[in-house]
Every structure is written in C-alpha cells, then in structure tokens.
C-alpha cells in the first residue's frame, strides 16, 4: 500500500464524506468544515467508493480495491462512484489516482475528463501510465452533491488505489515523486547496472580464466534488463510468455549472483552450482505447467521466494568463509548482499500481501550499491593483479635484458672463436692440401715405378718384396682416396646425376667382382637378384650407387669370420615403388649403442689397436654421405652374435637403361701417342717409363709449351693428354689441357691427375668438366682410361663421380 506523504496527513478523515448509494441512488454529501476547504494546500483522501459490477450489483468497498475476472467472463470492469461537497467555483483543484490497474475513464458531474478505454482493447497500462492526474475545471464543481465516477476495464483484473482531491500543486508533486521513485529512478539504476555489467564482461574477456568476472557481469546485465523491463511503461513481451520470461530472468540473475558470491570468497561448490544450473533450466517448464493448471501466481511467488531464500543461504556460507579468512572484500560482499537480499524480500512481501498493484520497488536501489561495490572490488582486484603481473613482466624484462647482454657477449666470444676457428681451418686446409700434394707425388711415382718393375723379370724374393711394397702403396692409396672423397663431399663438389640403369646387371657384376675375395677369406657369397623377363630398371647415379654397394659388401666380408654374405634385391610396392637391396652377413653383429657410431669417420668397432688390415673406419661414413647425396634411404638392422643387415631403397626407373662404356673396354695401347704434363721430375720420369713399357709414344714436359715444342720437334700428334693439376708459377692443368685442345682439337681426350685435396681445387677440377684422378694413380686405372680414350670417338662426358673414387 502506498500513501502520498505530507498533504494526506494534514487533512482529517472527518472531512471525507462517502455516501453509499442504494441501487441507482445519488450520493448525499456530508458537510466539511469550510475553513479546511478554503486552504490553498487542502488535500482530501477518499478511502471508500461505491463499486458497481457488470451485473449491476453495487457495494461500498475500501480503497485500494481489486476486482478479478469472474469465471466465463470475457474481461472485468469496475465502476467506482464517490460524492462529496466542495466549494463551488473553486479554481486550482485536481484529482490524483496513485494507481489504477486497467484502462480508465474519469468523469466529474457527468463530464468526462479522462478516457483511455479503446475498442479493441489496447495493452494494459504499466508503470507510471497507471498514475492519473486530472485537473478539475472550476465550472464543473458544484456547491453540493459533486459526483466522481471512475470506470476501469481489464482482461484479468482491475484495481483502484485511494483517490486524492485538493490543490493541484501538492498533488502534482506527489505524482512526480512517485513517477521518479517507481519509474525514472529504477530505469536510471538499471542503465548504470547494465553498464557496470558490460564493463566487467569486457574485463572478463581479458581474464577468461577468472570466471567470477563472467558470472558477475552476466548477472549485473540481467539485473539491469530485468529492472528496466519491470518499470517499462510498455509491455516488452505480452501474454503468458512475458510472465514466464520475466520470472525466468529474475531466477537467472539471482542464480548467477549466488554462484558469484560463493566463488568470490574461493568457495567452488560443484554440486551446488550444478543444482542451480538444473533449477534454472527447470523454471520455464514449471511456470508453463502452472499456467496450464491455473496456479501461475502461486508458482511465480514460490520461484521468487526460493531464489531469495537461496541468496540468504549463500550469504550465510560466504559470511562464515569471510570471517574465517579475515577477508575484507568478503565482509563487504556480505554486508552489501544482506541489504540487497533484504530489500528483495521486502518487495516480495509487498507484492504478495499489499493491495497496491503499483508499489515502489526497492530492489534496484539496493542493487545499485551492491553492483557498484562488487564492480569496484573486481576492478580493484583486476588492477592489483595487473600491477603484480606488470611487476613480474618488468622483472622478467630485466632478466631478459641481462640475459640478452650476456648472450651478446657470448655471441661476440663465439664470433671471435669462430673467426679463429675459421682461420685455423683455412690454415689446416692449406696445410692438408699442400701435404696431400707433396705426399702424393712420391707415392704416385713409386706406384708407377713398381708397375713398370712388375713387367720385368724378377726372382721370387724380389717379386715378394714388390708385392709387399705394392700392398703398402695400396693402403696409402686407399687412405688418400677416402680422405679425398670426404673432402669432396664436404666441399659440395660431388653431385648425383641419376639416370635409368640396369640394376640387375650392376648387382651381378658386383657379385662377380666380390666373389673372389669371399673365396680367399673362406666365406660363402651368394646373390639372389631374381630372374625376370623385364630388366630391373632403377633410377640412380650408377657410379655413386656402385661405390655404396661395393663398400657395403666389402665391409660385410671384412667383419665376417665364418659363414658368408648374401646380396639380395626385390621389388617393393611402396608407395613409392622402389627396389630394396640388402646386404646380409653372419658376422658378430653390432650392439645397439654403436649402431649410429659405425657411420662416424674413423670409428671401428672391435679394432682398438687400429690394425690397418681392418680398414680405416671411413667406408660406412662414405656410404652414408653418398646415400644422403642420392636421396636413397639407408638403414641398419643387427643382432649381436647373429649378423648384420644393411638396407638401401632405390627408386624404380622409367624407360630403357643407358649403356655406359665398360671400364673393361678392350683395346690396345700400342703406338698410342700420349702427352704428359708434369712439373715433378720423378713423377714425370715414372709416368714416361710406365707408358713406354705399354708401347706408347710419349711427349712429356713440365708445362704445356714444352710438350707442344717437343711434339712439334718429333712430329707427334697426341691422342690423349695426362696433365698434373698443380703446375709451376701458378699455372694449372685446366689451362694446360685448354692449350693442348686449342692446338689439336676440342675432342682430344684429357685426364687431370692431382695430389691436391683443397676444396677449392677440387671444385675447380669438377667445374672444368675434365675427368680427373687423384694421386697416387694405380697403373690399372690409368691403363683403363687410356683404353677407353682410344675406343671412344668422343671424350667421355664428365660426371660427379668420374674420378678414381668410383672404385674402392
């Protein structure tokens, strides 16, 4: 029940004259003291009225009065009449109805002054549209027997509050105050709460892990929307759906606030939160069911009371937690929450027990300080956390800066060390190149002399000495060749040139070459390559692949003491399709911890004394480098005591395999003219001696010009040129070959020999396109190249592996 302040208490109820009308009778006025009526601020409050229903029955009812729809009726209508005496002709009078639920029509002495009843009926007025302030024209007022008739129409109920008559200004002030408190004030508060809720939601977007920001922001936004809906003068959602949504929104915001309060003090009750979520989901169907059963008012009241009760329970739990932890923020939350919950309980009691259907609700006014306080606490917490994080970031930045400075210092030290290492490496490379050249020269000469010596008649003892010397030279040759191969691959001068090759032919040839060595070692050697009507065509560099497979077979024979070695080849469907070549042995096997190390340079398992008869430990290192260069996967499988298996996958080739000139091409060197350019006298003499022992004519000299002069003097036309790479006075074999070809034609076969392992020198020979061999050059290889040069009509095309490294 709402009473207007001040003026209503100044007027005695004795001035009120309400005449009960018999059926159809007029009101009889009661005298009112003239002095009271003449006052400028006089206000009369009418507390009773004669109510006439649609069926014609009339009863005197106390105001405020509520009239509900009868069963079966289309609507409800109530006509209220009051009669009183007023000063005739008095100006400045008005009537104020502080709450009229329904559409209203007001008439004074039969003259209509207000009419909101429409056909068809408009939506029911809400909020301050239910307040009616009507000015009373002086000419309508009579000395006695004034009659005021108020008619209300509605769908389900109508209600009329007490009627106030008197001076316009006090009544207008009373109307404005109620409009402010029940309409504009809550609307303003709703906007502020919604803005605070949105602000906290924006913070939550920055701190998604802090769910309390999300709960509070959503609840505050819902609270503001619910308040704005409550005081809105227009129906947001009409009918039963509006009633259901309004109560559901109320339950939702209270449920979110309960969860927020618990989490704010660190209480995360999973079962309670789950129960709240399920309860909120059950509210809409429960309300629709209650409407169907005609129990909507009771269900609505029960839901709202349950939510208020849940708020008090949550505040009790929060209070206990706050007092135990001595949390200032928790105690402030409890204080503000108790005020808001108490105001909510008051509003529920007023809505259920008061006859005033236009009450002033206090929940928004309690909610505003609660939301503002909680928003401030949350923002303060966010700011404090942000400052702490910024402090950590500053500390981290300082540490990063310190570490960066240390890193810069370390990088400078590393750069200095790297520059020193580069300088040392260049010096090492220069030394190795010079040492390689100087060491290879006498070994090369020694090998040539021994080749010439083997062609002479010697007794058995001398033959044995020559054979032992030849073995030592072969060991040195193997070491130099392996080192040169690694140097070439590190320098990037070896490139794979894949082509279609007959893999079966290559494997059969390897099997034939290695079978003799296996027999010498007392081992069995078998090759299972398979027979097929179509050739086994693979896509690979033939020379590099032969080097890989030859090294794998040689390695297997070297470490196998009994049993044998097996070479297999089979097709694999893939994808992609490829040939799988495997080399099996029955050796001692390789322990798991050593399977990666066997591919390292100079590593030999089971040879700590470094017996050179067991090799140098470079074969598998070269195998892995060449396999990586060709892009062919290489794997190792082994069992200690049972042997080892190396597997290499070779892509299937397309088309017909190319036919390469055989290294065993038949030919005779008799009467062949060879130009030899070599600045080392001993090496040049050994080369001349060896070539002459093969029946060749030789024009030799320290540089190209000497050879040209000698050939002209003797009338010789060289059929091949063998030139040392490093010559005197900074000249090299590439220039020398160019001069020879400029004289005797570009088709003149040429071969470079070099004892230099410097990467830049190797790259220069590679780029020249001229085949080259590394010193010491075995006589058999030199003879093989000369026979190929005689047989070929064109010089052989240079390949990445067209060096002595093509054979082990």
Could you give a quick summary of the protein structure above?
The protein is 50% helix and 17% strand. The chain has 808 residues and is of the alpha+beta class.
Folded structure, characterized:
- This protein is an alpha+beta fold and 808 residues long.
- The chain contains 18 helices and 25 strands.
- Helix content is 50%, strand content 17%.
- The strands form six sheets. A six-stranded antiparallel β-sheet has the order 3-2-5-11-8-9, with no helix packed on it. Strands 15-17-18-20-19 form a five-stranded mixed β-sheet. It has a five-stranded parallel β-sheet with strand order 22-21-23-24-25, with helices on both faces.
- Helix 3 runs antiparallel to helix 4 and helix 4 packs antiparallel against helix 5.
- The longest helix has 92 residues.
- The chain starts with 6 loop residues before the first helix and ends in a 17-residue tail after the last helix.
- The N terminus and C terminus are likely disordered.
């Amino acid at each position: 029940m709402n009473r207007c302040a001040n003026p209503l208490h100044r007027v005695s109820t004795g001035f009120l004259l309400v005449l009960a009308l018999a059926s159809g009778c007029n009101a009889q006025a009661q005298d009112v003291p003239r002095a009271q009526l003449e006052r400028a601020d006089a206000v009369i409050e009418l507390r009773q009225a004669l109510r006439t229903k649609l069926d014609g029955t009339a009863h005197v009812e106390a105001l405020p009065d509520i009239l509900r729809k009868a069963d079966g009726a289309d609507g409800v209508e109530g006509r209220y009449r009051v009669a009183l005496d007023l000063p005739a002709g008095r100006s400045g009078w008005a009537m104020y109805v502080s709450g009229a639920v329904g559409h209203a029509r007001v008439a004074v002495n039969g003259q209509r002054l207000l009419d909101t009843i429409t056909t068809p009926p408009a939506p029911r007025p809400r909020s301050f549209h239910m307040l009616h302030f009507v000015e009373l024209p002086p000419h309508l007022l009579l000395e006695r027997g004034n009659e005021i008739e108020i008619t209300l129409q509605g769908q389900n109920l109508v209600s009329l509050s007490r009627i106030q008559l008197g001076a316009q200004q006090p009544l207008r002030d009373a109307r404005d105050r109620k409009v402010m408190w029940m309409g504009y004030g809550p609307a303003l508060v709703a906007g502020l709460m919604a803005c605070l809720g949105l602000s906290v939601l924006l913070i939550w977007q920055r701190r998604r892990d802090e769910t309390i920001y999300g709960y509070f922001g959503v609840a505050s936004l819902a609270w503001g929307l619910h308040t704005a809906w409550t005081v809105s003068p227009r129906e947001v959602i009409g009918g039963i759906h509006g009633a259901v949504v309004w109560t559901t929104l109320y339950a939702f915001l209270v449920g979110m606030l309960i969860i927020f309060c618990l989490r704010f003090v660190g209480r995360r009750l999973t079962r309670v939160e789950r129960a709240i979520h399920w309860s909120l989901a059950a509210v809409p169907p429960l309300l629709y069911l209650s409407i169907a059963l005609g129990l909507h008012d009771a269900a609505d009241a029960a839901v709202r009371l349950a939510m208020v009760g849940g708020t008090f329970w949550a505040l009790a739990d929060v209070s206990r937690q706050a007092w135990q932890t001595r949390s200032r923020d928790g105690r402030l939350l409890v204080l503000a929450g108790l005020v808001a919950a108490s105001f909510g309980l008051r509003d529920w009691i007023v809505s259920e027990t008061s006859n005033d259907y236009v009450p002033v609700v206090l929940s928004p006014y309690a909610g505003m300080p609660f939301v503002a306080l909680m928003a401030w606490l949350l923002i303060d917490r966010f700011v404090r956390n942000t400052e702490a994080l910024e402090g950590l970031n500053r500390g981290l930045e300082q540490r990063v800066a310190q570490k960066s400075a240390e890193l810069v210092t370390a990088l400078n030290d590393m750069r200095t060390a790297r520059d020193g290492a580069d300088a040392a490496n260049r010096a090492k490379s220069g030394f190795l190149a010079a040492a390689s050249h100087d060491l290879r020269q006498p070994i090369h000469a020694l090998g040539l002399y021994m080749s010439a010596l083997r062609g002479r008649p010697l007794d058995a003892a001398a033959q044995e000495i020559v054979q032992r010397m030849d073995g030592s030279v072969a060991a040195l040759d193997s070491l130099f060749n392996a080192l040169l191969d690694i140097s070439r691959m590190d320098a990037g001068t070896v490139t794979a040139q894949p082509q279609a090759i007959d893999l079966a032919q290559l494997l059969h040839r390897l099997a034939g070459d290695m079978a003799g060595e296996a027999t010498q070692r007392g081992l069995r050697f078998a090759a299972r390559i398979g027979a097929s009507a179509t050739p086994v065509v693979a896509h690979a560099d033939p020379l590099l692949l032969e080097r890989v497979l030859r090294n794998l077979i040689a390695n297997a024979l070297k470490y196998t003491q009994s049993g044998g070695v097996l070479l297999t080849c089979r097709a694999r469907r893939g994808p992609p399709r490829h040939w799988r070549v495997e080399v099996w042995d029955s050796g001692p096997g390789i322990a798991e911890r050593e399977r990666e190390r066997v591919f390292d340079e100079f590593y030999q398992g089971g040879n700590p004394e470094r017996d050179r008869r067991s090799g140098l430990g470079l074969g598998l290192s070269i195998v892995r480098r060449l396999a990586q260069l060709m892009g062919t996967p290489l794997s190792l499988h082994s069992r200690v005591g049972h042997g080892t298996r190396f597997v290499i996958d070779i892509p299937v080739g397309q088309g017909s395999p190319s036919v390469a000139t055989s290294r065993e091409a038949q030919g005779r060197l008799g009467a062949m003219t060879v130009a030899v350019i070599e600045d080392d006298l001993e090496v040049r003499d050994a080369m001349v001696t060896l070539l002459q022992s093969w029946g060749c004519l030789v024009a030799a000299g320290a540089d190209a010009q000497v050879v040209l002069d000698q050939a002209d003097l003797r009338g010789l036309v060289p059929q091949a040129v063998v030139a040392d790479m490093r010559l005197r006075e900074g000249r090299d074999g590439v220039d020398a070959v160019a001069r020879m070809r400029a004289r005797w034609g570009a088709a003149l076969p040429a071969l470079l020999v070099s004892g230099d392992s410097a990467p830049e020198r190797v790259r220069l020979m590679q780029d020249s396109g001229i085949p080259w061999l590394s010193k010491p050059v075995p006589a058999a290889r030199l003879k093989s190249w000369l026979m190929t040069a005689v047989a070929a009509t064109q010089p052989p095309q240079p390949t990445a592996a067209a060096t002595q490294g093509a054979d082990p």
